[in-house]
């Protein structure tokens, strides 16, 4: 009798364990399926541009709007400065990595972060962003790291001319980051809020895809933008963070540089 009770108890325990395991697996599968569906949904919501490097690995690039960019590479999703005012982030895949350049509300948006992050989402942020959020790996100008096989370098992003009425620059030197990301054989420069700073010369001719801002009074004039483009000399250049963009004028100024200008909407809402 005791043996039979022991056998029944063991079988019930194993059954419960199996059910519990099955539930956990099912939940993980649901999350995976949801993210896959969102990736496919984004193909029609905000179509990505696809680039391939010499290694034939595919990088999907989505200019979500304003200063927000999304990358998809080898099954990983990277969101840079997600901003809920320019897109419905419930339609976009959850991020494996979120990069924040600086603390201004159009770059550090708690509402967008809440829609974008998962429990295991990794964060790489500036020091001030870390102080506001209370989490995230801090990178400062000049720091380098690697995440999931992707090399990441934090580079300067600051004003040299434009200032607040108080006399302080909108983006003081050393406070925020731009990022250079290396996806296999493709190198991407996300400049963040900056002017045509001399540090851009360091990456000249090495960048496959660049994002440069152009708006006043916070970042660059047309002339600054053209100068910055020539300093970086990327193969493909996305203007971003703009309210207006004179494509004919700037395109003519960059005509003989070998730079392909890729102009996208600044909002997808």
Question: What does it look like?
Answer:
The chain has 269 residues and is an alpha/beta fold. It has five helices and 14 strands. The strands form two sheets. Strands 1-2-3-4-5-6-7 form a seven-stranded mixed beta sheet. The longest helix has 44 residues.
The number of distinct helices, counting runs of at least 4 residues, comes to: 5
Estimate the strand proportion.
25-35%
Widest β-sheet, arrangement of strands: 1-2-3-4-5-6-7
| Secondary structure: helix percent | 25-40%
Number of strands: 14
Poorly predicted runs of 5 or more residues: 1-25
**Broad structural category:** alpha/beta
Q: What general outline do the C-alpha atoms trace?
A: globular
Q: How is the biggest beta sheet arranged?
A: 7 strands, mixed
Radius of gyration: 22 Å
Q: Averaging pLDDT over every residue, what do you get?
A: 89
Helix and strand string, N-terminal first?
HEEEEEHEHEEEEEEHEHE
Q: Compute the separation of the termini in Å.
A: 69 Å
Summarize the structure.
With 269 residues, the protein is α/β, with parallel strands linked by helices.
Break the fold down into its secondary structure elements and pairings:
Elements: H1 2-45, E1 49-52, E2 58-65, E3 68-73, E4 76-80, E5 97-99, H2 110-116, E6 122-125, H3 127-133, E7 137-138, E8 144-147, E9 150-157, E10 176-183, E11 186-190, E12 209-213, H4 222-232, E13 236-240, H5 247-253, E14 260-261
Parallel strand pairs: 4-5, 5-6, 6-7, 11-12, 12-13, 13-14
Antiparallel strand pairs: 1-2, 2-3, 3-4, 8-9, 9-10, 10-11
